[in-house]
């Protein structure tokens, strides 16, 4: 190598003006002098020769090369010439062997030309799909998933799984990210929402891991929210089906030590988790989860995770990254928006990173039709929203607000607007959030109100509309919010409300809309550009907005005062001694003066006030108690299948009409082995909390009434606590009450007395009644049934228990009992049972009337005694409907004996023969029964028959029977018909225990009143009754026989078809060897009162498996 070669090497890459310094360039042999006199040995002549020889392939290649050079810059031509010069070791060699050197040069140029053309095709393909990459040695994008199998030897099972999930062709991010990750390249991927990022990193991970191994986790996916983590977990399971991978999600950190710790089997491969849970397990001593063998760490929604402050996870990510110390470790980050600090961090910490961006950075999907609506002020938002509903709302719809408090306010406004609406935010329990997501996916929820929690990553198929009720705090937030629609090639719409308070960020959002092809008014683009300081302020602190609620200011202030008084009372209770008499007086004075309502306004019925004041004065001078305590809300549940009583008559070979006329029953609901007392109570309580929007923390007492026992020690109430534990509410008093069908009434009395006592802490009480009534083969089997009722108890209720008006009778009798705990079937003495029922009814009615007369003489029109004329409705515990009619006639007979009043259709002379009879002598007197059934027929039809709708179609629900009648009355009568009425109720439980008491209905029946809301909440009962599936008596009998055989078995898996349960139903999934039962909830759907058409179309034989 001579001095010139050294000079050329040192100056390579430096631009040299060969025109200006031509002589110097020749001197240092940077260029060669022109030699026009040279012939075939000269370069010019050689070029001319090749141009003339068009048949020579080398000449053609050289011609094409020259054409390509003309399109490039002169600098590149010079560099190529310099490269050619450097390749020449000797000038003499070039001249003596020109043909050999020339041929070699042309072949090299031909190969380079092919490579350039190929790269040009790749670049063209990337431009067509808006794929922008930066980095070195980037592989070509794939066009079909078949290329993965051909080029990268991806497992055919994985390819088939991809096809089965509906991936027809790769999305742009998948085209480039998959080959990159398959080549173990670290990357930062940015692609619009709904573009398939999850599959883009899961497919190469599954390819790399090959198959399951026993060495702990080898791939970790970190997501910012549990909802997104669960979605990724489900997608991973679907893609890896048949490959044997063990994918896990950390749902219960407390159990993770046993599941993932050093002493575990280490038979797991992929972990999907949120940062906090993983960090908690890593930082234990010793670490519960080992990250030593992790080969891939993927961070989803990386810009969110890299945020600083309370909403970010930067510190947690640092712990996770440091814990992954495998030498084969690779990283990947994905997000829908681009963050500069994330890119800078990746450049420093990633090995040979590649940046992949789909479309313009921080732009919205062009499939979303975006609209900005000026609403004036906060009040205009609700008007605009309801206007959208009025014009026609096409669900599903996502509504974004800026805070949990505003989400609750908007929910309270919309819940009674006739649309299926729900709410999700970080304060809701994980179980509640999962159920809401399930319901939204299945269509049970039409409108979902949410905070930023749902703005990232969640993939809901077919979201038609996104409404930004509150203006997004940043462009990033806006893109993620509206990205919930317009996903996977579907179109969508996004509407954003804005007020004068949102002008600061309006220009930025308008520019995003313009970049995605939407039109905005010109003035928005001319607004002043916000400064960095203003942007940070908006992103970090919420805009102060007026409340959404339309509740009158008076009621709002009263509610604040109530909460303040409760807080003050609790504080004093903690600081003072419970034995201190002054404290007790002051505590009772504060607590009992709480007039505020949880649901509605005070009604001031008056009856309770007088009693409360008297008792309050007796306890240290307190002047008032919680007013109008009673039932605020109700929910009813019954199974989704029934047997027709007329068909059962034929099957049992009894006389026609024995069940339908003699008992007054038309249909009977029953449970399969998928349901038990735990599941039906879980269903009805969960439904009540969700439908009324009651937070589990608002429940202070939980009373359960049942006679169905699964465990001699463990209560039903303890099973129901799983609905409250995740919200952190374990301070709930109350327990199960058991005495045949009387348990629910005892539970109701306990709940009311708790609220009226000094022990009340200001929260609701919840009463749950549930039973499954089954009988052994025979005529009694037709009096079975099943169901559950839940009641929310509090002050200022629409249904108020009248204080002091109660008649009770208790007695030791063996009329109906269940001594054999190994069987569900009772021992029943039919005649004795009916006699005891009627005799107890007489005693309770007589004692009730005596209590009324002793309490006051001003309540009723006839001050001498209470009669059926003083009750607007009369409800009974209903073993069967015919007994109820006889019981009403029995009360009419009582009135006749005590007052001599006869206002029926019959002549008084026809009843005169019964005037001197004694009650105890007439229980078997058919003449008395028949005469007074006829005498009271019209009153029965007006006062009792409307309450028998459920009893007639469901059967004997045992404990909830009486309250099922109350629910029937509420959904068959309008609020206007019920307002101000008095309801008389008789509760009976064999063995025996019974009470008669009364309820008064609030006078306020206006729209939005507690009474109107209560009646509306029960309107779907009729449609649910109609939507049940009829089962033949033969199948009904088969089910009962199977349940009898498997009763109380351990290590049992139910065989009933869970798909045919009502949406939202909790059901039994298994019983382990230690009799521990596991339950799940069936997702809701668009109309939770109806079974969908697919279920209706199933054959009857599919309701219960044939092997039963």
UniProtKB/TrEMBL annotation:
Biased composition (Gly residues): 603-619
Boundaries of every DEAD-box RNA helicase Q domain copy: 147-175
Record keywords, A-Z: ATP-binding, Helicase, Hydrolase, Lipid biosynthesis, Lipid metabolism, Nucleotide-binding, Nucleus, RNA-binding, Steroid biosynthesis, Steroid metabolism, Sterol biosynthesis, Sterol metabolism, Transferase
Localization terms from the record: Nucleus, Nucleolus
Domain Helicase C-terminal per the UniProt entry, residue ranges: 367-528
One annotated Gene Ontology cellular component of this protein: nucleolus
Helicase ATP-binding domain segment(s): 178-356
Residues forming the catalytic site: 707, 741, 877
Pathway membership, UniProt: Metabolic intermediate biosynthesis; (R)-mevalonate biosynthesis; (R)-mevalonate from acetyl-CoA: step 2/3
GO molecular function list: ATP binding; hydrolase activity; hydroxymethylglutaryl-CoA synthase activity; RNA binding; RNA helicase activity
PROSITE patterns membership: HELICASE_ATP_BIND_1, HELICASE_CTER, Q_MOTIF
Coiled coil: none
Substrates-to-products reaction catalysed: acetoacetyl-CoA + acetyl-CoA + H2O = (3S)-3-hydroxy-3-methylglutaryl-CoA + CoA + H(+); ATP + H2O = ADP + phosphate + H(+)
Sequence motif: Q motif, positions: 147-175
EC code(s) of this entry: 2.3.3.10, 3.6.4.13
GO annotation terms (biological process): acetyl-CoA metabolic process; farnesyl diphosphate biosynthetic process, mevalonate pathway; maturation of SSU-rRNA; sterol biosynthetic process
UniProt-listed CDD domains: DEADc_DDX52, init_cond_enzymes, SF2_C_DEAD
Record-given protein name: Probable ATP-dependent RNA helicase DDX52
Phylogenetic lineage: Eukaryota, Metazoa, Ecdysozoa, Arthropoda, Myriapoda
